[in-house]
Design goal:
The protein is of the alpha+beta class. The chain has a domain of 178 residues: Alpha-D-Glucose-1,6-Bisphosphate, Chain A, domain 4 (2-Layer Sandwich), CATH 3.30.530. The chain is 22% helix and 35% strand. Strand 1 and strand 2 form a beta hairpin.
Length: 280
């Protein structure tokens, strides 16, 4: 898939991709690293979230980098300042984890809260088991303001996995000579640890605590505007998912994969082609 020249963008703790001795990218190790980063951030943030989180002492809370920012529609928004501010939203969806996971694992699902998304496709499945799938994906957005259209895209590696009753969906931007930047499109940077963690809320498997971590550099957007966008995204996502499951009797969408196993679908539909997104 990728050559020795392929690199990840700077993330929480990753500056380049891990490699095997033969020069090929070690995707499995990369998946483990970003999954660990994602789970660690959610755990640390949970000590600050007094609504959904883990009760703790003030002294321990003060040692975390996360802090409370706001609460909207029973969705707690937390922020963390490192080299830049990034955001985590946490809210309950009254649907089992497996059902929500079956929906959000699809590359197209973010269309219900991200109206600027115009293209989403799988480029290659790298690993596939009953509980874990790694793939390279691509998304493109378009936004028109004052008759000027701005295009952004993202090439990224994704690890989707079920771990100890939780579903982890985390990504990191990658570069690869096979999929070069388009000079007419701004390529954004997904940093290590962005994505979702879904877990049973307070041990109740019929309810999902949805953790949405936004850690993306949109490129070319002023910092204060980007901060507002990333802060709003988790709230929009959780609200949209609640609405979707409240209005969809089967808790499924006909254009989603019916199984966690991508190969069942890929026999008839190549993952190397774009997947149409319903724009109703």
């Amino acid at each position: 898939m990728a050559s020795k020249n392929a690199q990840s963008y700077s993330g929480s703790s990753i500056t380049e991709l891990p490699y095997h001795q033969d020069g090929s990218v070690d995707w499995d190790t990369l998946g483990n690293i970003i999954t660990g980063n994602m789970l660690a951030e959610v755990v640390y943030a949970s000590y600050v979230d007094k609504k959904h989180g883990i009760p703790t002492t003030e002294s321990f809370t003060a040692d975390t980098d996360w802090e409370f920012s706001s609460e909207v529609d029973n969705i707690v928004v937390l922020k963390k300042k490192s080299e830049r501010t990034f955001w985590l939203g946490r809210g309950v969806i009254e649907i089992p984890v497996r059902v929500v996971a079956e929906y959000v694992k699809d590359v197209r699902s973010s269309r219900i809260w991200d109206k600027l998304l115009v293209e989403a496709k799988y480029l290659k499945v790298l690993k596939e088991t009953e509980t874990c799938t790694d793939y390279i994906g691509y998304q493109r957005w378009e936004d028109t303001n004052c008759f000027v259209t701005t295009k952004r895209d993202m090439l990224y590696f994704v690890r989707c996995a079920y771990l100890d009753g939780k579903y982890v969906h985390t990504a990191i931007s990658v570069e690869d000579p096979e999929y070069p930047d388009n000079p007419d499109i701004i390529r954004v940077n997904a940093r290590a640890g962005c994505g979702f963690v879904l877990e049973p809320y307070q041990g109740d498997e019929s309810r999902t605590l949805f953790n949405y971590l936004g850690n993306i550099d949109l490129k070319g957007v002023p910092m204060f505007i980007m901060s507002k966008i990333l802060k709003a995204h988790p709230v929009c996502a959780i609200q949209a998912l609640r609405k979707h499951f409240n209005t969809t009797q089967s808790h499924q969408s006909p254009w989603l994969f019916s199984s966690f196993n991508f190969r069942r679908r890929s026999r008839a539909h190549s993952l190397s082609t774009s997947i149409n997104i319903p724009f109703q």
